[in-house]
Design brief:
This protein is mostly helical. It folds into four domains: 3-81 and 241-309, 3-Layer(aba) Sandwich (Rossmann fold); 85-238, Glutamyl-tRNA Synthetase, domain 3 (Alpha-Beta Complex); 326-373, no CATH class; 379-476, Arc Repressor Mutant, subunit A (Orthogonal Bundle), CATH 1.10.10. The protein has 19 helices and eleven strands. It has helices spanning 16-31, 50-63, 86-98, 109-121, 137-145, 192-202, 218-228, 258-263, 268-277, 291-297, 312-325, 328-339, 348-355, 366-373, 384-391, 393-408, 417-428, 433-444, 452-476; strands at residues 3-6, 35-38, 102-105, 151-154, 160-165, 169-174, 181-184, 207-211, 234-238, 241-242, 308-309. The chain has a three-stranded antiparallel β-sheet. A two-stranded parallel sheet has the order 1-2. Strands 5-6 form a two-stranded antiparallel sheet. Strand 1, helix 1 and strand 2 form a beta-alpha-beta unit. Helix 9 (268-277) packs across helix 11 (312-325) and helix 16 packs across helix 19 (452-476). The longest helix is centred in the last third of the chain and has 25 residues, at 452-476. The structure holds one RNA strand.
RNA sequence: GUCCCCAUCGUCUAGCCCGGUCUAGGACAACGGCCUUUCGAGCCGUCAACACGGGUUCAAAUCCCGUUGGGGACGCCA
């Protein structure tokens, strides 16, 4: 059975790169009817934060990427938080040490850094020179007596390592170019390379789907899997994603977080859909896909090798498509949740019905929400052109006529804009813009927006009359 | 510097493995038109790409070599 994992380190909010990696793992697991595991890689105590771990799980849940095993739900091969697995790493490290596959290194970080800079300056590969590999007992004791602490390094065997990457094909590395690397830091915690291999081995991970930045780490991991006695999993290295400018999506320019999109009102299913399209494409030309569609169509074979750049315009397009696919009731519920409105607000569904086609994100509803919610129009603070429009003599005539028509109309069915409009056209002899723009301005303070025949019933007779009156008052001043 | 990965419209991509069907397809954007009281949406249309140079071949976006460009790794970060 396929077992995959998403293993973020909680050093910040879940960003788009993380989310995409999580998504592809999830899609693969769901398509293969396998297991999706969440593992928190918090071995770097200084940089990791519990609040970030919590935020990440929340964001993953929001995206709909549910996991079968993880810190909160448990599972048979836990714990799923690396900070809780220290004894396990200790045990495996001791085993490597006693088998002569690892050795203590007494070099200080300053010494290592110095040598690295030196090598770089000479144009040499800045790798560790394995100098502590063959230390005599005497040397070791001497370093210990000097009070030096030691880290544990893995003895990298010679030869080459090759593997078949599921997206890149055959890849080969010369291990002679890889220095012995640290697997346990001097403070006693495992490094990323070590923890990952121990965990993936113990957790029965069958496929490692991760970013391409790990491609050249893979030979290290493969030799570690060998030494640890685990069968190495399959690997699939995802291409990276770039920023909008074409540059890289780095931590530096703070890769946009999933929650920033959520706050902007992007639908979770739209973000998932968009992210899936970044580096993967379905067999047919359809691009607007539900989570179900994605799961059923997903295949690692559809993954792209080259880097993809973010395109917010396209994200918005996808978002708009998903919003439009929602029933008014459903969309109203989402909007109510986003703005913490009472979901039973009676006019909300009607409003949504009226403006649905105008929305690309949930927050786009805000100006329309205001149209309904505004208590007083306060024309003094709205756009200059709207103010001028309302002051115009012609407009005032239209509004007077409108007032009369509205006042006359009504009944059990509410205000019917069609008949009012006919009425109005007759009494003023106007039509089109000249007739409707003043009405729109008085009712919404805007010169554009959703169709009036949708807005008018929404506002109701009382509020319409009040607003028209306000507009007329303002026009006088 | 060394090693590894990548290279099709501005952007996401199909095609490449198994050369001819590719005067390179789709989508977003841009631009134009239709519809519309307006914006948007919708519909229709236009513009737009095989990084470069060598091979191989009757034929290359597709295979091979090189160049250039971009990215990654070489950390007691992950």
């Amino acid at each position: 059975m396929v077992r995959v994992r998403f293993a973020p380190s909680p050093t910040g909010y879940l960003h788009l790169g993380n989310a995409r990696t999580a998504l592809f793992n999830w899609l693969f697991a769901r398509h293969e009817k396998g297991a999706f595991i969440l593992r928190i890689e918090d071995t770097d105590a200084a940089r990791s934060g519990e609040e970030y771990a919590a935020a990440m799980t929340e964001d993953l849940k929001w995206l709909g990427l549910n996991w079968d095993e993880g810190p909160d739900v448990g599972g048979s091969v836990g714990p799923y938080r690396q900070s809780e697995r220290t004894p396990i790493y200790r045990k495996y490290a001791d085993a490597l040490l006693s088998r002569g596959l690892a050795y203590p290194c007494y070099c200080t970080p300053q010494e290592l850094e110095g040598r690295r800079q030196e090598a770089l300056a000479k144009g040499l590969p800045p790798r560790y020179d394995n100098r502590c590999r063959d230390l005599s007992e005497k040397d070791r004791r001497r370093f210990q007596d000097e009070g030096r602490s030691s880290s544990l390094r893995f003895k990298v065997r010679s030869g080459t390592v090759s593997f078949r990457d599921l997206v890149r094909g055959e890849v080969q590395f010369d291990l002679g170019l890889v220095g012995d690397f640290v697997i346990v830091k001097s403070e006693g915690t495992p490094t990323f390379h070590f923890a990952v291999c121990v965990d993936d081995g113990l957790m029965g991970i069958t496929h490692v789907v991760r970013g391409e930045d790990h491609l050249s780490n893979t030979p290290r991991h493969i030799v570690l899997f060998e030494a640890l006695g685990f069968k190495a999993p399959e690997f699939a290295h995802l291409s990276m994603i770039g920023g909008e400018g074409g540059g890289l999506l780095s931590k530096r320019d703070e890769a946009p977080s999933v929650r920033s999109y959520r706050a902007r009102g992007i639908l979770a299913e739209a973000l998932v859909n968009y992210l899936a399209l970044l580096g993967w494409s379905p067999k047919d030309n359809r691009e607007i896909l539900t989570g179900q569609d994605l799961v059923s169509q997903f295949s690692l074979a559809g993954l792209t090798k080259s880097r993809a750049a973010l395109d917010h315009k396209k994200l918005e397009y996808v978002s708009g498509q998903h919003i439009r696919a929602l029933e008014p009731q459903g969309l109203a519920r989402r909007i109510a949740a986003h703005y913490r409105l009472n979901p039973d607000t009676p006019w909300l569904v009607e409003l949504v019905r009226a403006v649905k086609d105008h929305l690309v994100t949930l927050t786009d509803v805000e100006p329309y929400l205001k149209i309904v919610q505004r208590e007083t129009m306060d024309f003094g603070s709205c756009a200059r052109e709207t103010q001028e429009l309302i002051r115009r003599e012609e407009a005032r005539k239209v509004l007077e006529a409108f007032k009369t028509s509205v006042a006359r109309s009504g009944g059990p069915g509410g205000v019917d804009f069609h008949s009012i409009r006919q009425d109005l056209a007759q009494s003023t002899g106007l039509n089109g813009k000249a007739l409707l723009l003043p009405v729109r301005a008085a009712l919404t303070r805007e010169s554009s927006g959703p169709e009036l025949n949708l807005i008018v019933p929404l506002l109701g007779k009382e509020r319409i009359l009040k607003r028209v009156e306000e507009a007329l008052q303002f026009g006088k001043s």
